[in-house]
Amino acid sequence: MSSHREAPEISKDPVADSTDVYAFVSPENPDTVTLIANYIPLEAPDGGPNFFEFGDGVLYAINIDNDGDGVADITYQFQFTSDITDNTTFLYNTGPITSLTSPSWNRRQTYSVTRVDHTGTHVLGTGIPCPPCNIGPLSTPDFTGLVADAITTLTPGTTVLAGQRAEGFYVDLGAVFDLGDLRPFEQDHNTFGLSGTGLGQMAAGVNSTAGVNVHSIAIQVPIKELTASGKMPTSVTAPHAVLGVWTTASRQKAHILGSSPAEDVHSGPFTQVSRLGNPLVNEVLIPMSEKDYWNMQPPSEDKQFSFTISHPELAGLLPVLYPGVFPNLATYVAGGTARADLLAILLTGIPTGVVPGFQNYTGKVQADMLRLNVAIPPTTTGASNLGLIGGDPAGFPNGRRVFDDVVTIELRAIAGVTLPLVDPSYMPDGAAGAISMGLTSGASDLTAMGTENYLSEFPYLGTPYSGFAVPAAS
Amino acid sequence: MSPSTGHEDATGGAPVSPSRRSVLRGAAGVGAVGFAAAAGVGALAAPALAADNHRTAKAEVPLTARPADAAGAPLVIYLRDGGSGELDVFSGTSHAVVRDPALVARLTAAVRPSLAAQKRG
Question: B33 at the A interface (CB within 8 A)?
Fold first, then answer.
């Protein structure tokens, strides 16, 4: 998936496992940027009585680099505290939760928000309530009302929400990890010579994340509070118009188990255990043996991974899995030339002069960050889920919107679609531009199967599926 | 989506049906990027690749939102290598390295009496 369970160790620590990060100029409030970091992969909506929640011992952060060195200049930190209001019941709630202070709500979380920047550490809010999980029509009869009450203004123009949301990322995971058997192209897969598999008939994709939830930290911030200039850039080529964004989760180094959980000791500096910038980098490009190490690294040190990223294993696999379909890619891979297009898209940004009217270049430092040019306005009509390669400069890899089909975009890029940017003599295989997860009806489809409930305004990710309506067994 | 539904190609042009390998093999250019590579190679020269395996210390978050260094916070002491004589001491969100071979020896003896006895012997 984007970054769900992408590394062996972090997959065992789901509350600290970042799944997606989004950064985009807010369509309904274009002088602000919306930043969303998702955690806790694949939440079954009916997962009670201990419904999903953030980790109290985890330091969550959304990091912004505004000068291109791959080091955070601004960090928004989030720390959560869980409370039980009734020690006598096993239930999450003992009646309908009709407000954020409902006495029927037994297990709740609050959180603090702190901005760390070059001027110091600024606590923006404490004791901010999370909404409950969406349990069902009896327990959370007005769930959207609870969410509305939980959306909190921290400072003028800065709004935050932390809580459960519907998963917005979409992928046919079962097909991808069954040896790359993309259902729309089954008939072309080599099937490893196996017969009687039932494959061979093209089929629609299956959205593996349909019907599951995540926990989101969403914050909307005035652009001028994030840029190095302290101003709203008006030119795409303006210095410091590009923000680098990534999320991290950290835990304290030492954990001693007490005789009861209340006596546990967490001690020492917070050390990073999870990070996420561009989708799929750690998931698809980094070898399994290095994935957890990658999670511990800052973006500023990503030069050490440049060889791996510029020689993607998947580019070599596609011509093998689909014989005869990617001949040009096979030749290119065999030549051993580094994929400078991928390095640009993922690690440095695209310089001025490559794509007319566009740039999101942050400099020579190779760092995996979402790169958002905040001078590019949101696309309000005719948006493409293929983002920049679909002719829509407001979408991935210019930041990332909730509906961007990042799997298709990156698969096409790895398959060679973006190679002409650096090698005009390269002719992409026809198949490269046709690769699809089969989860949308086309580039203009901004809903995706199973994720029809995107919102047009903050927090953009849809109302989480209720446990009553979407039991895990369905 | 229906398998028969065409996919819009990367050029933003007519849908491309994925229904035949011949289509997948397709005419050259179908898979080209949907924007003009105005400057091409010159503007996006391949950065020098450093395929080194340099490994750095893992990132530590320098500042934390929750002050946790209040007086009375428990100390957690970690002895990674008795031979170094160094102890990692954690308290709150702090970390200090203390070099005290004598203390290390006493701590080692306390938890490994038989080993210490062997060393003394």
Answer: yes
Nearest-angstrom CA–CA distance, A11 and A19: 11
Residue A244: Cβ within 10 Å count: 29
B79 at interface of A, judged by CB pairs closer than 8 A: no
Question: CA A274, CA A278: separation in Å to the nearest integer?
Answer: 13
The domain ranges of chain B are 75-120
CA distance A89 to chain B (A): 30
Alpha carbon separation from A329 to A324, A419, A428 (Å, rounded): 10, 10, 7
> A428: distance to nearest CA of chain B, Å?
5
Nearest-angstrom CA–CA distance, A376 and A23: 13
Q: Is the ipTM reported for this complex over the cut 0.90?
A: no
A202 contact B CB<8A: yes
Supply the pTM of this predicted model: 0.88
Q: What is the pLDDT of residues A365-418, one digit of tens each?
A: 999 999 999 999 999 999 999 999 999 999 999 999 999 999 999 999 999 999
Q: One-letter amino acid identity for A13?
A: D
Q: How far apart are CA A62 and CA A217, in angstroms?
A: 9
Return residues 15-54 of A near B (CB < 8 Å).
none
Contact A307 B51 (CB under 8 A): yes
Q: What value, to the nearest 5°, has the Cα angle with vertex B78 and ends B73 and B83?
A: 150
